[in-house]
What does this fold into?
Amino acid sequence: MTKYQNQTRLLAAVDCIIFGFDGNALKLLLVQRAIQPEKGRWSLMGGFIQPAEDADTAALRILKKLTGLEGVYLEQLHTFSGPHRDPIERTLSVTYFALIDIHQYEKQLSDEYHAEWFPLTEIPSLIFDHSEMVKMAREKLRYKAALHPLLFELLPKKFTLPQLQNLYECVYDTSFDKRNFTRKVLSTRLLVKQKDKDKGSSKKGAFFYKLDNRHYKAHFHSFLNIIPNPPIK
Amino acid sequence: MTKYQNQTRLLAAVDCIIFGFDGNALKLLLVQRAIQPEKGRWSLMGGFIQPAEDADTAALRILKKLTGLEGVYLEQLHTFSGPHRDPIERTLSVTYFALIDIHQYEKQLSDEYHAEWFPLTEIPSLIFDHSEMVKMAREKLRYKAALHPLLFELLPKKFTLPQLQNLYECVYDTSFDKRNFTRKVLSTRLLVKQKDKDKGSSKKGAFFYKLDNRHYKAHFHSFLNIIPNPPIK
DNA sequence: CAAATAAGTGTACAATTGACAAGTTTTACT
DNA sequence: AGTAAAACTTGTCAATTGTACACTTATTTG
It folds into this structure.
């Protein structure tokens, strides 16, 4: 059958907003753009969707290419479609946000893409509309992490409660009461206490926990509000 | 500057999942497809993104074309990008979901598109991946309406508490306790009681309410959980 | 063995949620 | 005119959840 008439075709790309957490700060993985225009400027990792791929597949491919990782948390965020967002040629971008364990990445780091982790407080100026994409991704991360046990994806398989609390405090740029925080996360029954401790950050050491993966999958949609209720105005 | 080399271009469309509520059931506005392939089958209202448009603009245009309405609630949902989702030619679809006051629509109805409202329980077989789009839109509606005062968009400017409760009961396919429901929605301070009553559905009549638009915009992100907490397993 | 460091733990009060039923207004019918 | 019917409106109490708040414990180092 014949093609659709009188319509313009355009390029379709994916761009990935990749979050990591190094124990102290939330970070974003950016690359130096390898092609014109804007070659050399910082940008999100992206690429064109190939003929046999859907956007999810393209995002997975690109993420694997950059980090070597598979099986990471990846979620479609938003599609950016301004007619002039790429000055060379009309390109629509389907954005994804990814959460990775930054330590796994370090092992597999490839220099090929001139990639670098930037703390969210020090994001450089980005090409095109990538800053807007990052902004939206941050908002979605905060939104979603308040309702679902998402942030575990940023931690190693074994983590401690102080690490977890620190991560939440970074994401929400606030601090929580230790006792209330512990009680809340443990009440989900999602965490399994291990026998060993992390001695890295204190003399006493903090017990490791692991996710209970059965519960994790089953209860992903019914987590709880980590954010304390704001005082009534 | 020269175009990107060795990349394939494709068509980009938008498709709108349009919800309405007639007082008894949630409905979806579908059209009979006017072009080949699949001409005559039921489908979501959609169209190609034009050269000067971004996807939001295209969705607004298409919604206006079909319903005559402007200023309706419209939100980008998801982008569908399977390489073979349209058998004629690769087409990527950015989907939007819209909430409209079904009564406003009826006044402006145009027969041009062979549009019809279908109760969500009686959706016919749809072309391409449109059924999947509808499924995702329903899930998002339920998800989001539990957290934000979204469903007011489906009601007339003046509505009654029983109407509102009925709408929530339709969306969640359940029933709520009247007293608790009333207390919850009134506690948001989003509703302003009117002096007049709707005598349409009872002898006593139910007071009309209006949204307090200042509060509505300001507190959209901090609504409350309408869904009762599920019993602990 | 004393000091330093960070981890771990409990209680009381306040706010919210959930279960539950009787009274009110109006119309229509006898 | 009085009564029955229909649907709207409203309140209380118990249970749960959220919040504020401070001391003890384990371990290492000097």
